[in-house]
Sequence to fold (259 residues):
Amino acid sequence: FSLLASRHILVTGVANRWSIAWAVAQSIVKAGGRVTFTYQGESQRSTLEKLLSELPSVGPAPLLLSLDVKNDAEIVAVADRLAKENLRLDGLVHSIAFAKREELDGAFLETSREGFILAQEISAFSLVALCRAFLPLLNPQASIVAMTYLGSERIVPHYNVMGAAKASLEASVRYLAHDLGAKGIRVNAVSAGPIKTASGRAIKGFVDMQKAVADRAPLKGQELTSEEVADATVALLSPLMRAVTGEVLFVDLGYRQMG
Ligand code: 0WD
Fold:
């Protein structure tokens, strides 16, 4: 049966075919859902068009909307365009993060004021901004899912400024769950284990992070894939999880539970 039949989900953060958001979009379509994409910059738009051309066509061509979360006018423009198309949302996938490369190396102590604020703005505040702007478009029972990482609650060498940003993102998930719960809207995070994407590889200790999971996680003999993260995301987007909100769901082969 189709978990997301006739549900319309806005997916952010497809930068390329390795992006977790691209796997999520494909899982949504497999589950019978319809996707609208946002992209950051024209080169991501053409990447998206190419990726979409490789998929078997299901229904009308998806809408592609420009969105840089640093830009309030673009956030409003996305909401306006959806309203103009009479499109309401049953879900939102926040798969966006950014930190300066030099701050994902060396000492957290050296984080710059500007770099700290930038990471918070793009990786955490953006969730608040998108929820607020899209609230009038969200159907009751809509589900919002943000991507996070264990470095929010544990010291993961080199994750640094992004650890602080993910802690802020997860706290935002809880407060948004409280604010939106009265409308029946759920807000959760998926905490993915390390996956080889452009953002993942930007972290200096990435290979060590992957090795630690391979060596120690309870589920052995498999490398965590973005499809596994995507399917868990679809579960959270679906009515099967209708009583779950304000949660962080770990999709990490069980690694976090190891002492
Ligand atoms: O191991 C991993 N890859 C993990 C990733 C483990 C656990 C969590 N995550 C998280 C990331 O922190 C992020 O929140 O998953 C999310 C998606 O990351 P990804 O799929 O690993 O990486 P990537 O394909 O680079 O997507 C992140 C995207 C950006 O990509 P680029 O490569 O262009 O920085 O975030 C988007 C952009 O598409 N993004 C923005 N979107 C709108 N406005 C902005 C912005 N200002 N900045 C970055």
